[in-house]
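Quick one: co-fold with adenosine monophosphate.
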Amino acid sequence: MNEQARKPARKKVELDPRFVSYRHVWVFIESERGEVHPVSWELLGEGRKLADALNVDLCGVVIAGPGERGKGICAEAFGYGADKCYLLQDPVLADYRNEPYTKALTDLVNTYQPEILMLGASTLGRDLAGSVATTLKTGLVADCTELLIDTESRNLAATRPTFGGSLLCTILTQRHRPQMATVRPRVMAMPDADPSRRGEIVEVPFAMLETSIITKVLEYIPDDSRDKPNLPFADIIVAGGRGLKKPENFALVWDLARVLGAEVGGSRPVVQAGWIELDRQVGQSGKTVRPKLYIAAGISGAIQHRVGMDGADVIVAINSDPKAPIFDFAHYGIVGNAMTVLPALTEAFKAHLAQARKAG
Amino acid sequence: MHSVVCIKQVPDSAQIRVHPVTNTIMRQGVPAIINPYDLFALEEALRLKDRFGGTVTVVTMGPPMAEAALRKCLSYGADDAILVSDRSFAGSDTLVTSYALTATLRKIMESMPVDLIFTGKQTIDGDTAQVGPGIAKRLDYQLLTYVSKIVDVDLEHREIRVERRAEGGVQLLKTTLPCLITMLEGTNEMRFGDLDDLFRAARYELKVWDRTVIGIEDPETVGVKGSPTVVSKVFAPRPRSQRAEIIDLQDDSPKNLASTLLARMFTQHPKLEREIAKRAR
Ligand SMILES: Cc1cc2nc3c(=O)[nH]c(=O)nc-3n(C[C@H](O)[C@H](O)[C@H](O)COP(=O)(O)OP(=O)(O)OC[C@H]3O[C@@H](n4cnc5c(N)ncnc54)[C@H](O)[C@@H]3O)c2cc1C
Ligand SMILES: Nc1ncnc2c1ncn2[C@@H]1O[C@H](COP(=O)(O)O)[C@@H](O)[C@H]1O
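Sure, here it is.
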C-alpha cells in the first residue's frame, strides 16, 4: 500500500463536537492472579504509536483483587509505554467475572472518556470487550491486525481478516466513542521495556457488593502448564501438514523439534485428524505465532495457515510441489520430500550444535 | 425447560475463493452451512432436553435462504424454528445483530419463558464472538462464555453450574437461570437426527418474523444505518515482496542440501545462529 492510497482525497473533516471530551488511548491490562497476559504489553506498544499520532496520553487500566500486586503491574505498564494507569482493586474483582468487570470498565470509560479502548483478544478480553461495547452502545472491531489513525477526524482505521482470512477489511467507528478494538496475542510486536519510565497511578474506588453479584466462582482449576504447549511464545517452531501423509511420519517433526528445543505445531487437517493436539494448530482458527524460526514441512501455505505464522522472523518451507503457495512468503524453500529432508535437517542441526558446544 | 439456540447460516469459507483480478469474493456455488460452532450449542440444548424435557427453539436472523439452516436444526431434533428476516437488516454489525436478536427473544418470551439462551463461540464469517455477550447484556442475563461443560442444572432452585474455559485454567461457576451460554467447540458431538424429525423438519411451517413483528419500529436503528462500525474497504492480503530462496533437491543430496540451508540462513541471520547456539548448552 502506498501513501497515496492511505490518504483518500477529501475535504477537511471537523471533529464531531460530541467527541471533543473523548481523549486519550486506553489499553486494558489483563491480569489474573498478578500475572499479566503478554498481549497487554504488545497492545501498549501499539497504543504508544496511536497516542503519539493523536498527541494524547496512553493509559492502562488495571483491575485486580486487593491482595494482588496492582501497583507493580502499573509500574511494569509504564515501562512498556503507558503514561498513566487507572487502578481498581476490590475483593469482588479477585477472579474474573463478567458482571463486575464489565461494570468496572464501563464506569471508568463513562467517567474518563477515552477515544480509543483496546483489549487483547483472549478468552477474557473477548468476553469483556463484547459486554462493554454493548453496554456503551459503541462499535467494536475484533481481531485487528493493523491499527492506523487519521489525525484529523481522529478515527481509528482498524484492519482485520474477513471471510476466514481470505481478505482483509478496514473498519471505522466514525459516529461513536470510544472506538474499541481487540487484537490477538502475538499479532503486534512486543515493545522493549524501559524500566526507568515512570507514570501516574490513579486509584479508583469500586463499589459493588458481593451479595449483588449473581455468578459465583466455586473453583479455579489451573491448567497443568508443564505439558501444555505454548506456541504463541515459542522462539522456534517445527510444524507439519498433511504432506507428511501418515501420523507415524510426524515423528520426524518431533525429532527435529527435540534437537532445536522447539515447539511442535501443525496445520488444521493434521489437528483434525488427531495427529497432534488442538493447542498446536497454527492459523486463523488456531494460534498466532511469532517465532524467530518457523520450519513448515508438508504445509501448502493456505491463507488461513499463513495469517497465523506470517509474523515469524525466518520461515523455512519444505514442500514437494515447487508451486506450493508457501514458497510465495517463506524465506527459504526446499523443494523435496519432507520424509527425507526432515531427517537430513535434524542431522545438520545436530552437527551444528555439537560444533557450537565444542566452541564453548 | 425452554432453551433458545441462536444459529447463523454462513458461507462455507473453506470453499470461498477470491477473484484474482477484482479482489472480490466469489460466492457463486459456495454452499451455505450452519455455522459449525453453533452445532455445539444446539447439541448441548438437545442434551438438556433429553435430561429435563421441554422445548428447544432455534432462531436465526438472516435472508430467506437461511430457512434451510433452520430446517436442518429441526431435523436434528429442535422443536421450533424462527427466521427473523427483513430487508432493513442488511449490513447489520454485531451490535445491531444483538439488538434484533434480543427483540426476537423478548417476543418469544411473551408466549413462553426462556430458561437458557445458547450461542456458538463465534461465527466463521464474522468471527467476532460478540453477538452472545451482546444479547446477554441487553437482556441483563448472566453471561457464561466458553462453556466446556454443563455440570448440573437445578430447575427447582433455578441454578446452573458450568465449567468455563478461562485464560490458563478452568473456572467452575454457579449462576441463576435464565442465563446465556456460549458453547466451546469440541465439547460434544452432534447427533444424527431420526427419521421422524427429518419428516417433521420438511413439513414444519416456519415462523418468519419481520422487523415490525419483533417490535422494532425505526428502520434506521438496524442495518447499515444503525451500525456503529462501517466497513470502509475490503482488500486482498499483500504478497510478500520476495519469493522464497529456493534450494532444489534435484541437484543435491538431502544432506548437502540441509547444510546449504544452514549456511545460507546463518550468514543472512546471524542472530538466529546465536539463538540456536544457546540451545547447545
Ligand atoms: C474457516 C477456516 C479456518 C481455517 N483455519 C485454519 C487454521 O487455523 N490453520 C490451518 O492450518 N488451516 C486452517 N484452515 C484450513 C486451510 O484452508 C487449509 O486447508 C490447510 O491449512 C491445509 O493444510 P495443509 O497445508 O497441511 O494440507 P494441504 O493443503 O493438503 O497441503 C499439503 C502440502 O504438502 C505437500 N506435500 C505432499 N507430499 C509431500 C511430501 N512428501 N513432502 C513434502 N511436501 C509434501 C503438498 O504439495 C501440499 O502443498 C481453515 C479453513 C477454514 C475454512
Ligand atoms: N444473524 C444471526 N442469527 C442468529 N444468531 C447469530 C447471528 N449472528 C451471530 N449469531 C450467534 O452469535 C454467535 C457469535 O457470533 P459472532 O459474534 O458473529 O462471532 C454465533 O455463534 C451465533 O450463535
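If it helps, Chain A has two domains: 14-212, 231-359.
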